[in-house]
Amino acid sequence: MTTRQFASQLRSLIEDIKSKGTAAIYCDNLIAYLREVENSPEPELTPLEIEKYKADLQNWIEVNKSGQEAQLKLFRSVIASGQSAIKSSFLLNGGAAVALLAFIGHLAQFKPSAVAQFGACMLPFTYGVLAIAVTSGLTYLSQWLYASPKAKAVKAGFYVNLSCIALGITSYGLFVWGLLATAAALKGYG
After folding, report:
1. Whose CA is closest to 148, among 160, 136, 137?
2. Is 23 among the domain residues?
3. How many structural domains does the chain have?
4. Which of 20, 128, 145, 146 is deepest in the core (most CB within 10 A)?
5. How far is residue 24's CA from residue 97's CA, in Å, rounded to a whole number?
6. pTM exceeds 0.85, yes or no
7. Is there a single domain that holds both residue 24 and residue 97?
8. Residue 63 counted as domain residue
9. pLDDT tens digits in sequence order for the chain, 190 residues long
10. DSSP string spanning the chain?
């Protein structure tokens, strides 16, 4: 019962009593009536109120679903970007190592004394491949830890993720180092 319904019912009850010739209402009778109202079951909601409640609930569900979908898309985007970075670093360092190895193999036929100079240039590329291979493995460990319901595991997953980022950047740095070393060796070779 709403407040208005209660007030309306109380007014009509008092008017009914007054029309029957009662000039005063005893407090005990009024208190007994109010107790009866308090103990009566709540009336059912009107169909309009039920529909409004359903609409509000459906709106809340849709807003939460939309937010969840947006977070999932963002997460997938981050994973795809990370995988692209791993692939490109692997291709850079691995391709450079293979190209330098082919060059050294060809150089060994004509000038074997220069092989050692270019062999040292290959180390940064191979370390870059190793760093990015470790990064690739650690990303799976990171995701496994993130999926854990334990807070400590999720925190550990965060730190493993940071180490993946650091190793990825290191791999790119090793590529630059190898590139500069190879360029210097080629200048000295000529």
Report:
1. 160
2. yes
3. 2
4. 128
5. 105
6. no
7. no
8. no
9. 666 777 788 888 888 888 888 777 777 777 787 788 777 776 677 888 889 989 999 999 999 999 999 999 998 998 899 999 999 999 999 999 999 999 999 988 888 888 888 888 999 999 999 999 999 999 999 999 988 999 999 999 999 999 999 999 999 999 999 999 999 998 987 6
10. --HHHHHHHHHHHHHHHHHTT-----HHHHHHHHHHHHHSPPPPPPHHHHHHHHHHHHHHHHHHHHHHHHHHHHHHHHHHHHHHHHHHHHHHHHHHHHHHHHHHHHHHHH-GGGHHHHHHHHHHHHHHHHHHHHHHHHHHHHHHHHT-SSHHHHHHHHHHHHHHHHHHHHHHHHHHHHHHHHHHHHHHH-
Confirm whether 73 is domain-assigned: no
The whole domain housing 141 covers 80-189
Residue 150 in domain: yes
